Structure to design on (284 residues):
């Protein structure tokens, strides 16, 4: 079997064009504030891409760059200002933060209605309960790619590799809400290959280059690779050994060009949704 390649780049471009068209019809411009602390080079690239994508779609986006020495109290004061600013619909604090700042404290300081990353415990809780929430961008991208593949989710056996708060857990919650039977795998799982082999859907988010091998994949499974791992050669690799798994799967994503661009598209979508909901809420 040769897998169909799920082109996240092309899909994200279509989504971004749709979002821009939608924003052009609005009587207001959604506002996004992206906060970065310190000079992590990968974070700087992510933030630049997010701001550019947001501007291109018509979102009033601005990046607030703070030095690595910024005190936690100063960052919390900035978040309070952004929470109170009516022109700011979405607030994103780029992770990781410098070690002297408690990331969780900062995440919890963001107004849940402006939490376009969907990391606030209120949004995470709503998601687990199956209630409307701002849902993390990468997991939304994963679900959209599964839809694009025409994957039947109800009753399907899904293996999610990785249980982080930003990818694995929310993906598992979304798949559960879509009636899949989900197994969440992690570093303490006894036989991860055997668990994967039983799955019709495999989502890899472990941060280990090419960990998922071809003989882990059931014939015809759909494989979504969230991993971004930069090798010593400077090349990006996913968590999935692409050629081996593509030989077994019915559909598969590539790295780069799969989940990554979808994450940015859903940041724009979340900003649009936050802006719309805040206006509905303001009307009482
Ligand atoms: P984390 O490091 O927060 O979590 C990794 C998870 O994988 C943990 O649950 C960990 O288990 C599990 N794990 C690690 N090693 C193994 C192993 N050998 N066997 C089984 N499970 C293992 O990573 P993230 O969730 O933040 O990110 C995962 C990957 O996705 C990374 O490559 C990251 O760069 C990428 N990513 C991509 C995004 C995109 O836009 N495409 C966005 C976000 C992340 P345990 O809990 O037991 O420690």
């Amino acid at each position: 079997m040769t897998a169909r390649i799920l082109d996240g780049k092309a899909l994200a471009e279509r989504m971004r064009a749709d979002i821009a068209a939608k924003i052009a019809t609005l009587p207001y411009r959604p506002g996004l504030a992206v906060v970065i602390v310190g000079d992590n080079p990968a974070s700087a690239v992510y933030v630049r891409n997010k701001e550019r994508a947001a501007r291109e779609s018509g979102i009033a986006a601005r990046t607030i760059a703070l030095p690595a020495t910024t005190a936690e109290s100063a960052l919390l004061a900035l978040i309070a200002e952004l929470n109170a600013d009516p022109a700011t619909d979405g607030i994103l604090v780029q992770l990781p933060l410098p070690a002297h700042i408690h990331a969780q404290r900062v995440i919890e300081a963001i107004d849940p209605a402006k939490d376009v990353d969907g990391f606030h415990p209120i949004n995470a809780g709503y998601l687990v309960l199956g209630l409307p929430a701002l849902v993390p961008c990468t997991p939304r991208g994963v679900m959209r790619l599964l839809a694009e593949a025409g994957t039947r989710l109800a009753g399907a056996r899904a293996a999610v590799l990785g249980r982080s708060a930003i990818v694995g857990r929310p993906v598992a919650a979304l798949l559960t809400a879509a009636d899949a039977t989900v197994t969440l795998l992690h570093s303490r799982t006894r036989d991860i290959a055997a668990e994967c082999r039983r799955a019709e859907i495999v989502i890899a988010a472990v941060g280990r280059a090419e960990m998922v091998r071809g003989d882990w994949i059931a014939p015809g499974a759909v494989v979504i690779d969230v991993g971004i791992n930069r090798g010593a050669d400077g090349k990006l690799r996913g968590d999935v050994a692409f050629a081996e798994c593509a030989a077994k799967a019915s559909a598969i994503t590539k790295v780069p060009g799969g989940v990554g661009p979808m994450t940015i598209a859903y940041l724009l979508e979340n900003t649009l949704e936050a802006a719309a909901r805040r206006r509905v809420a303001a009307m009482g």
The two ends are 55 Å apart (CA to CA).
